[in-house]
């Protein structure tokens, strides 16, 4: 955000285009000293009132607000509930059965770091790249095979980078390794990650050249899996929803 975006007058030389700390603090109605403590991580438990004020000052959307609240919960050391082994096994069995019953609809289950936990035969055979369990959706999307076949790759790249940041734990060593690999491999990823995009992959359009050489338009939808493991079901389907979105 620039000063003129929030009706502020830009005074003096600026090293960066965005708002200064004192400007953000003023817009949020808090002291600059307190805002600096928040930036530096010296205050781990800001009140909901302060978070709402910062969200208004930075004009965050609903996804940005939810992401900010989740980061605060992680930073403040909130207890994370774990699914029981029995519940996890029952959920996984149901998911495997469901994915297997979609022979012409690519579908997969990913974790917080977009690691692929499950995928059906349609995902593995139709989609470019390696959609096998143990692979990673972000590595696939930023890989050469997917880039060659995705007719709107820039859109997919933005969506994937935003979903990875939104769902992951910033303190997770596995995330750090993944981001390091992607940053070394791909300049586009470095730029997107540096922009701090954060949004869940709810509904988006994906236009691909599939393994049979045909151009296909999919509607990609994401659904939270019940439980506390941060799993998401991603389905790519052809149908009226995709046709309506393309004609709108």
Automatic annotation (TrEMBL):
* Matches recorded under InterPro entries: Cro/C1-type_HTH, Lambda_DNA-bd_dom_sf, MLTR_LBD
Q: Which domain of life is it from?
A: Bacteria
Cite the Pfam families for this sequence: HTH_31, MLTR_LBD
Q: Where does the record place the HTH cro/C1-type domain?
A: 14-65
Query: Which PANTHER family does this entry report, sorted A to Z?
Result: BLL4672 PROTEIN, BLL4672 PROTEIN-RELATED
Q: What is this protein called?
A: Helix-turn-helix transcriptional regulator
């Amino acid at each position: 955000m620039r000063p003129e975006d929030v009706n502020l007058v830009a005074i003096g030389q600026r090293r960066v285009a965005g708002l200064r700390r004192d400007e953000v603090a003023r817009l949020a109605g808090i002291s600059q000293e307190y805002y600096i403590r928040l930036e530096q991580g010296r205050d781990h438990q800001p009140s909901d009132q302060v978070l709402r004020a910062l969200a208004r000052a930075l004009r965050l959307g609903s996804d940005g607000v939810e992401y900010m609240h989740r980061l605060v919960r992680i930073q403040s050391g909130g207890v994370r509930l774990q699914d029981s082994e029995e519940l996890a096994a029952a959920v996984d069995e149901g998911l495997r059965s469901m994915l297997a019953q979609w022979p012409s609809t690519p579908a997969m289950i990913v974790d917080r770091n977009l690691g692929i936990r499950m995928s059906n035969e349609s995902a593995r055979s139709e989609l470019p790249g390696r959609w096998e369990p143990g692979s990673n959706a972000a590595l696939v999307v930023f890989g050469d095979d997917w880039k060659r076949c995705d007719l709107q790759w820039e859109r997919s790249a933005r969506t994937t980078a935003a979903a990875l940041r939104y769902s992951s734990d910033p303190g997770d060593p596995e995330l750090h390794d993944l981001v390091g690999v992607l940053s070394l491999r791909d300049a586009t990823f470095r730029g997107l990650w540096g922009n701090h995009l954060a949004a869940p992959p709810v509904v988006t359009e994906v236009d691909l050249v599939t393994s049979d050489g045909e151009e296909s338009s999919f509607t990609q939808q994401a659904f939270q899996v019940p439980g506390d493991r941060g799993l998401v079901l991603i389905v790519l389907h052809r149908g009226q929803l995709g046709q309506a979105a393309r004609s709108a």
